[in-house]
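Practice problem: predict the structure.
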Amino acid sequence: MEQKQIKYTDCHPRGKPGVRFPLADAHVDPHNIEARRAHMIAFLRHMELYSEKSWAEARASSIAALSMRLHREGFGKVSTSYFELLVDFGVWRCFFKNENPSPSWPWMVPPQRDDLTQGASPLYAAWLKDQVKQEASKKPEAPNDPATIVAEPAEQVVAAHVAEASTASTSALLPAAEIETKTETTATTEAPARVLPPPQVPSSSRWADEMEVDDDPPALPSGVTLSPPLTRRNGGQWFAPKEPSRSKRLDIWLALNRSDHWVAPICGPFEVLLPEWMDFGALVWGPEGAHFAHMHKELIDEDLVVTWATENGVPKRLIVGFRDDDEGSRTPLCKMDRLGFLFTRVTNWVDDVYDGSTQSLLSHLSLSRNTANESMYQPLKPGSRLCLAWEESRKRQ
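Answer:
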C-alpha cells in the first residue's frame, strides 16, 4: 500500500482528535541542530511516541545506515550539518514508517554535504575508522544473496524527495538515512551505476523492514556515542571542576526544606539531568572553555561552582555546590540560600533547553543577574512544568 503523508502540524495523538501540536507555529531554523532536534522530540512527545530508548535505537539505526551508504559511495568525510540532518531524517522515518498517513518531514531544505563551516562530521569519521579496521581484519566475502542494488547518491535521494514534497502533500518521503534495496534497474542515459551487494543494516524489531534481521537492538559503532558532534570536535578537552561532596550537598538540600523526592529533570541534591540531544560544547563550555570560565569569574560567587558528571565521557548532569567541602548543614542560611538560588537558575535554564531553547547557560545567567538587580535570587518560573512539579512534591511532604 502506498504510504500517504499529511502535514505534521495537522497530526494528533492516536485517539485524541483535535489535540493540536503546541509548537505548530514555532519557527525553527532547520540548520540549527539543537533547535531542530528539540522540535522533533517535542513533536514525538506530542504524539506520545517518545522515549529515550526508542530515540536512541532509531538514532543508532539511522547513523549506521547512513554511514554505510556514504562509505559505499566513497565519501571520506561529509559536513556535520549534512550528516546530522540526514540522521534526523532517518530517525523521523523510523518513528513513522508504519503510519499511514504519516506526518511529513517538517523541513524541506537540501543538506549541504561540502559545507564544512561546522567541521567534518566526527560521528561519520569515527564510524569510518572502525569500519576500515573491520574490513582490514577479514577477507572480502561474496554475498549469500545474488540480488544486487543500485547505489544512488544520498544528496540526489533527498533532493528528489524535496521536489516531490513541494508539489504534493501526500507524496512519500523515501529514506535518505536508510539504505533502500532495489532488485530491478532501469536503462538511463547517465553513466552506469555501480552494482553493490545488499547492505547489512542493523535494525530494531520495531522498525525493521520486511527482511531477516538480528533480534538484538542496533548498537552504535565502537567509540561513537549519542552525544552532539562537539563532543568529538572538542577532543574531550572539557575540564570539569572537582565535584562537591554529595553528602554535604544533601545536608544543605534538606536544611533548605527541599524534598528528597526528586522531580525530573532534578536527579539529586543540586543535580539536574541534561537533555541527551543538548550540545554541551556550545551551550555550556564555549570556545576553548571561554563561556565556562567567564561564567565563574563574573556571574557566580567565588565560593560556588557549577560542574558536571559524565557517563562514557559524555556530560549527563550538571551539579551545583560549594567549592569547599567543609560546607554542610552548619553553613549559615544566607550561604545556603545563595546555593539554592544559583541552582534554581541553572534548573530553569535546563528546563528551557528541554523546551527547545538554544540560549547558552552563560547568556541565561547573565540575563537573570541583570534582571534581578545583581541578586542571585530568581524563583522558579511561575506556571512552568518544573514549578508545578516542585509544588506538587512539596505538598506530598
